[in-house]
């Protein structure tokens, strides 16, 4: 089945679909490469079976375009399946085989406290209970030399007991397997012969890098979700085939590239942050069209908001992410997963984030979300807690009759009742509570974004913000004003932009291997051999996914540090055969990057290389979007009407113009307050802000500098209580 869906007859199909399953909504975008036309669709996610909404949405999208799924040549899919399984502990029964003496590595961790002042510190429980963590007699030293041969009979007996206990997946992580994987490969060969139904993950394949805790934890996470992802992909492939789909089917990776289903089955942990990656890619895509190389991506959906920095035209990558944090915003409180991932900040703030009054009598918003079921109170699906969406509806920002283009009507009365209940607890009426919720969530997102940018040495005021997601355009100008950003860009298809980002992602795979040593003393033939092997494996994976061999490119990188330091710095490695002569070139590149990051350098200190990386990629897809010459600045032809909307700067509700985005022509301009509606999102232009439509149909908002701090109190408020 997988071979059928990854063997399309053409590399550049006319019709392409991006499919993004989120916590609240499933987003779809269809592009026609001949006409440049884009068709969008949004449907509530079905949490019990995410594929149900995905398949229904695909059928509805194609039907609206007058197509069948058989006309679609490319389908790129992003999903929260992996991250949800790890957070909710819904993966397969999993076991671990490890070197004797290292059974408790998952609990020992780094032996560091992520908060030295917390007397009740907690870490996430390992995904595998101790009784299923089995020690094996074998030993390899850090150079790869075998100190104690593997006892396969011992392994066979242990796995027999585990399978009888119901284990479906097995993680094999032996000490120093990155230096010599022979023992892990021997175990895998035996298991394939004698236990073919068992899903096996080898640390030497998943993450052949130094650091035992991170390597073992990542391998366990991969094994834990492998059966789940395999079943899901088989279900999707079978359903797509029944509907006539014969094109290429790719999955989105956390690092911003796509992979074929067979590779996703082997490395499902690489799908951990597949959905958010699309937002970063689409920001870089729109930035390139506008010749803007440095941007801040702001993606606010129904469950979370994501912030990502685009520098020099591309999102930055990091080699590690934490899953299932005990404390969402405390680094070190989660399960470390060593996979390449786009470097972004995520906060529990979305349209479905609920508002509560805490034990101190203060109004709080998030991180809990009402999701798709039961959803916000205004959805009329059983939810009774006030959410950010309820607040936007009560403030007049959303039209109850035009949500999702009118496909879903919102209940404003239900939203006001929910807001009134929570407001009564802090002495506020429904509208005051709604503004408090809107302001709190905006402040929370701005505070998180400020920390994210400053930690990377960036002044927020230097950047323009690209806002998208179902809730992003409604909050972007307020968040930008708090941050000090002067410009907000809302691109076309903003409500489903992450799904559009999937369609500009190349097929790619990132491989890494540890070979530590001082830069001046490295075994360069061994380094060269590592790169040759990694590039061959990467090429094979891409060709397996349908990329022509002559269109695969390889980009090399290395992680290095000054001896005695903990944090690694990534530098480019030149192509071709590597010899000792390249050491000086790498040292110069390392010094340049070190000075860029820290503004100073410690000359004379030896440099240690740690990990060697290579990114194998296919050609980047070409997505054509329409543009037009600038015309008249009069937006009157797009005016839908006027409605009351609340802004503290107007001291209450004011009648504001509401524009139809699809009728706004390039060159149109307006002064806020104003509202711009499209089917999947609503853009709020604050008082004093100015709106212009550029040649690429982007909404460009120039954010005004406030003369005085905006009040969070409504004139009718009966008391304080906002945090």
Structure description:
Helix content is 30%, strand content 25%. Helix 11 packs across helix 12, helix 11 packs across helix 13 and helix 13 crosses helix 14. With 723 residues, it is an alpha+beta fold. The strands form nine sheets. Strands 13, 14, 15, 20, 23, 24, 31, 34 and 35 form a nine-stranded mixed sheet that branches. It has a six-stranded mixed sheet with strand order 3-2-1-4-11-12, sandwiched between helices. It has a four-stranded parallel sheet with strand order 6-5-9-10, with helices on both faces. It is globular.
Gyration radius, in Å: 26 Å
Return the structural class.
alpha+beta
Distance between the first and last residues' Cα: 54 Å
The global form is globular
Tell me, rounded to a whole number, the average pLDDT.
89
In terms of DSSP E residues, the strand content is 25-35%
Largest sheet: 9 strands, mixed
Provide the descriptors you would attach to this structure in a database record.
about 725 residues; globular; nine-stranded mixed beta sheet; six-stranded mixed beta sheet; alpha+beta; 17 helices; disordered C terminus
Describe this structure in a few short sentences:
It is built from 17 helices and 35 strands.
What does the secondary structure layout of this molecule look like, with pairings?
Blueprint (H helix, E strand, L loop, with lengths): L1 H4 L9 E7 L3 E8 L5 E7 L5 H15 L9 E5 L2 H8 L5 E6 L5 H4 L24 E4 L2 E2 L5 E3 L3 H13 L4 E5 L8 H13 L4 E4 H4 L5 H31 L5 E5 L5 E2 L1 H6 L7 H16 L5 E6 L4 E7 L2 E2 L1 E2 L2 E3 L11 E3 L3 E2 L1 E4 L5 E5 L5 E7 L18 H7 L17 H13 L5 H26 L8 E5 L3 H12 L3 E4 L6 H6 L5 E11 L5 H21 L8 E10 L6 E5 L8 H17 L8 E11 L21 E9 L4 E9 L8 E3 L2 E4 L4 E4 L4 E4 L5 E4 L21
Parallel strand pairs: 1-4, 4-11, 5-6, 5-9, 9-10, 13-23, 23-24, 30-32
Antiparallel strand pairs: 1-2, 2-3, 7-8, 11-12, 13-14, 14-15, 14-20, 16-19, 17-18, 21-22, 24-35, 25-28, 26-27, 26-28, 29-30, 31-34, 32-33, 34-35
Helix pairs in contact: 3-8, 11-12, 11-13, 12-13, 13-14
